[in-house]
Amino acid sequence: MSTPQPTPLGLAPSFGFGDRIGLATPGHIAAARRAGGGIAPMFAQQSIREMTRTNRTPPGVMEDAMNACRAAGWSQPHGADADHLKTPADVSVTAEAGFTFFTIDPSGIVDQQADDYSEARVRELFTEAAGAAPWVNGYRGKTVKLPTGSTIVFDEPALLKAAVKYGRAIEAAVSLATTIRQVQQAAGRDYEIELSVDETEQPTTLAEHYIVADQCLQSGMKLVSLAPRFIGELEKGVDYIGDVQALETSLRDHAAIAHVLGPYKLSLHSGSDKLSMYPALARATGGMFHVKTAGTSYLEALRVAAQEEPELFRELCVFSRTRYDADRATYHVHATLDAVPPPEHLKSDLELQECYLGRWETTPQGDGFTQAGRQILHCTFGSVLTDKRLGPALRACLVEHPAVYEEVLAVHFEKHLSALRAGM
Hints:
By secondary structure, the protein is α/β, with parallel strands linked by helices. The protein has helices at about 25-35, 50-55, 60-70, 90-95, 120-130, 135-140, 155-185, 205-220, 245-260, 280-285, 295-310, 310-325, 350-355, 370-380, 380-385, 390-400, 400-420; strands spanning about 15, 40-45, 80-85, 100-105, 145, 150-155, 190-195, 225, 265-270, 290-295, 360-365, 365-370.
């Protein structure tokens, strides 16, 4: 049976496997098969930012994923995520490569300080930017009762803050969605859109979620999933930090908005290793979710190096520490260099691996990895992979030990997928 090309997956539960090196798809396929189906995979997934940092291209990302699918005899539907798109040029190059799931990211023009402004400052900024939010009067005085029992009140402070925070971002998202529609229709290709509003310091309120999604849908955007900024902390490389029970209550409200307005899926970004919250996400959404991972496959590549070439892994840890303070700037992480001993203080190879990659252990929040060392390695992937010596050395290690890489990925992601299935 031939391997199908990527297609839109619609409202089916889905899971994005990021592959920053181009060698991880065999392990992703093995995990999907072991988990027993029920969650549609996206094997080709990479953001423009990640491609820039790793010197990869959209055609290259697609080719690596498709070659692995053909070699493994994958015959089930799968998607392809062109992640964190910001410009028409981003759309053009990813559409031409065959991506079908377009993640719009207007975070660069979201006013990140809006939650901290005084009422007077919000009103001042609203006056200056009112043209970007002509929709305000349409919500003024409105209330929405959700099926969960919660009520969204669109009062004056909430509306003005939403306009200041998201007005220009909504405009940009609608404009980019129009470009995606035009490009795909001209080529006769189907597509679907995800909107990312998760990269903010403060959680997305119910009113903000409702307004953003409603305005996008009214514009005709083919919205299949939306990624709010959830409560708690969703940091790279570690489990969810926060009250999972409170999160599930919040997720139900966000899922209710998605059902009332769409329906569309709720999307979890920074989804790697958030096992304690996966069942809650699946339950709250009734299985209408998308989870996006990326860096955790890179960390598992480093685990192969730690097992097969420990001296290379030690060198990678030393180098990553030199790059961490600069590379962490675009990530939400709490780890500091002081939180992890320098590699030279860890004489045992096993101790070094456990310190920087973590052991699978039970915590008060659930099973998962919690070590700060993972964040140091996670954030510095671009510096490692583009280093003239370390990048090729790591890739050579993976090429020499493909079965090991496939197995560690299969074990790792089976945990992710099984935790999600537990809530379905």
